[in-house]
Amino acid sequence: MALISPSRRLRRTPFSDGVEAAGVKAYTVYNHMLLPTVFRSVEEDYHHLKQAVQVWDVACERQVELRGPDAGRLVQLLTPRDLRPMLPGQCYYVPIVDETGGMLNDPVAVKLAEDRWWISIADSDLLYWIKGLAYGYRLDVLVDEPDVSPLAVQGPRADDLMAAVFGDAVRDIRFFRFAHLDFQGHDVVVARSGYSKQGGFEIYVEGSDLGMPLWNALMEAGKTMDVHAGCPNLIERIESGLLSYGNDMTDDNTPHECGLGKFCNTQTAIGCIGRDALLRVAKEGPVKQIRAIAIDGPPVPLWDRWWPLLAGTTPVGRVSSAAWSPDFGTNVAIGMVRMTHWDDGTELTVQAPDGLRHATVKETFWN
Amino acid sequence: MALISPSRRLRRTPFSDGVEAAGVKAYTVYNHMLLPTVFRSVEEDYHHLKQAVQVWDVACERQVELRGPDAGRLVQLLTPRDLRPMLPGQCYYVPIVDETGGMLNDPVAVKLAEDRWWISIADSDLLYWIKGLAYGYRLDVLVDEPDVSPLAVQGPRADDLMAAVFGDAVRDIRFFRFAHLDFQGHDVVVARSGYSKQGGFEIYVEGSDLGMPLWNALMEAGKTMDVHAGCPNLIERIESGLLSYGNDMTDDNTPHECGLGKFCNTQTAIGCIGRDALLRVAKEGPVKQIRAIAIDGPPVPLWDRWWPLLAGTTPVGRVSSAAWSPDFGTNVAIGMVRMTHWDDGTELTVQAPDGLRHATVKETFWN
User: Fold this and answer.
1) Among A126, A133, A303, whose Cβ lies nearest the Cβ of B135?
2) Do the chains contact at B2 and A1, CB–CB below 8 Å?
3) In what order do the strands lie in the sheet with B26-30?
4) pLDDT at A271 over 90
């Protein structure tokens, strides 16, 4: 791995002191912010995430706040998902597309009130797209990046740890719902959500003063639960089929190609940008799509380029994320495969940096 | 320094193979791309840049291309700089602001033709802002990120090296002008520009096939000129007062605060976004502004947070970039200082991570 130079442009978070004290080993950069990638080792973090509970600094999931009479109209403009059934207190995963149907981000929208939303973003400056549209359409809405930093608590013991800090009310929060809870006299939004399939919560921390007190309270309360600092885990997220914007999809891809067609209500999401393009895609179907791919052989290396997928010598797709899975005893991967070769069980060749390997398309992800 | 995990989300460039072969020691991430920060050492790179010639992978200066009948109108919408005098073949440094006059980016606009522009961006997804506006205004213009990667040649011997590869025509290119030149049968745009004050060029390389042939041709031709791989140098850019978006300024700052008032023709740049807010600022002047700051004491550490500037115990600003300058025998810094304390020679205290230090506001930068 290479070194990263310290820079004020790559922002610290309210939890950085805790992350450093916990012995973070490596970072990535996400929304101009440092995001930890390894604490003990990717494999050790993986086993621990599936068995215990971790606290993750995901402050880099920046919010775009929309506030004002036109906030709801603007959110519906952004996404082909029909938001009419959505109530305050709910979170929706919302593909965001441009006028050609190309993915610009895949955030979670948090509906705080009819006229106040947070869009919890993946790695692109979605703020700029939303501000540009709001200005161009002359909408009556304020759009900015509030000083809100999510802290995630993930793992099978997440409910117990959160209950120890926030009380048993957290146990009643349903999946992709949120509640306002108290921490040391401050109102915080706590959602049952997160970038793993091990269960857990995301706490939206406003300002920076509350960051380390909350981090420390979770670490203290979790001592008997084997709590540890963690981070989104490459192996677990691939096993779970959790996509990464910029890795597994770019603005070249439609939601349908990303397997997100179920979040596109193109017929009813009237007024959304990209509707014309997506109606066409919805009718004909995509010609390539995200698939789970099992890759044979020894553990694949961490890498920084897509790997071509071949049928014989014909390119039929690419692998965009891959890692060795100790639990499943194979290399798990996410790829985009042409429809001619996307059926379950199709055998392909992947051009990995250490040579050609045998790969198999799978119907479903592992977790 | 911390480690950075390899990721497909942090894109390689057409020159990455050359950068690695040249022994890059550290990176930063800029526009979702790897940008080298150190080859031999920051100090050694600095001395060499001022004496010889370097080839820089600045592919991370991504382009936003505007093409179509409304391209010119859209560019003028983006910036308070009056673009009417600008001719095809010219480059302009253009502050980009939102409706409140807050800086969104500080790119160089390249006017290829009346209906075709490249905006060569600093570290934020300006593409999203421009696309959002184009869509909101229903302008007749295509906006996208073309596959164009700048390669910079910087240093006092840049003219000689470029002439050896492109012929003597490069010597006639004036500052912030460009020409179309031939490289191995391909037309490339070559501008006299770059992120140093040592002189030089930026070559806009289309596609990825030409990247390594061009890198290798420059390295081969420069053997007798002590050419070396380099990168934007922290010390040299501070000495030269070259600002870094995200470090020295954010969307909280107006161009006037950044000392970029001379690029704002707010009276005549009719139709630009943020005009109302900036007319107010232009009339009253900013209450804080970018200044050169000399910091006493031994070499300051590389750091990732702003340092408070104090007059006695009163906060009057911040230091946003700082480094030890071997040539000037002091720590050189860029800061934002309140008008009460921004006069040349004002003595302040800077709260550095290793303690309080004496600092002096300077009228001008060092280079």
Assistant:
1) A133
2) no
3) A33-38, A26-30, B2-4, A2-4, B26-30, B33-38
4) no
- Residue type present at position B136: G
A146 interface with B at CB cutoff 8 Å: no
Q: Are strands B347-352 and B307-311 parallel, antiparallel or unpaired?
A: antiparallel
Considering the four listed CATH numbers 2.60.40.1930, 3.30.1360.40, 3.30.1360.120, 3.40.640.10, the one that applies to the domain covering A16-62+147-238 is 3.30.1360.120
Which of B164, B254, B130, B152 lies closest to B199, judged by CA? B152
Q: Record the pTM.
A: 0.97
Contact A136 B131 (CB under 8 A): no
- Chain B residue with minimum CA distance to A139: B136
Contact of B271 with chain A, judged by CB distance below 8 Å, is answered with: no
A interface test, pick of B304, B306, B334, B336 with most A CB neighbours within 10 Å: B304
Number of H helices, E strands in chain A: 8, 22
List chain B residues with CB under 8 Å of A132: 128-133, 135-136
pLDDT band (50, 70, 90) for residue A270: confident
C-alpha–C-alpha distance, residues B194 and B121, integer Å: 12
Contact of A150 with A203, CB cutoff 8 Å: yes
With a pLDDT cut of 70, the percent of chain A lying above it is 100
List the structure tokens of B333: 């810094």
Judged by DSSP in three states, B136 sits in helix
Inter-helix orientation angle B158-166/B211-221, to 10°: 120
Q: Is B244 on the interface with A (CB under 8 A)?
A: yes
Beta-ladder partners of A177 = A90
B177 touches chain A (CB under 8 A): no
- CA B285, B287, B290: angle at the middle one, nearest 5? 95
Please check whether residue B123 touches A, CB under 8 A.
yes
Sequence ranges of the domains in chain B: 16-62+147-237, 63-144, 287-367
* Cα distance between residue B164 and residue B168, in whole Å: 8
Element (H, E) at B105: strand B103-105
**3 state DSSP class of B21:** helix
Measured distance CA(B278)–CA(B255) in Å, rounded? 9
CATH of domain A287-367: 2.40.30.110
Topology (CATH level 3) of domain B63-144: Alpha-Beta Plaits (3.30.70)
What pLDDT sits at residue B267?
Answer: 87
Residue B269 has pLDDT above 90, yes or no: no
In A245-264, which positions are buried (b, 16+ CB within 10 angstroms) versus exposed (e)? bbbbbbbebbbbbbbbbebb
Say which amino acid occupies A17.
Answer: D
CATH node for B16-62+147-237: 3.30.1360.120
Q: Are B129 and B121 in contact (CB under 8 A)?
A: no
**Which of A339, A229, A203, A351 is closest to A284 using CA atoms?**
A339
Tell me the sheet residues that pair with B183: B186
**CA–CA dist A245, A251 (Å, integer):** 9
Average pLDDT over chain B, rounded to whole? 97
Residue A199 is classified by DSSP as -
B303: closest chain A residue by CA: A6
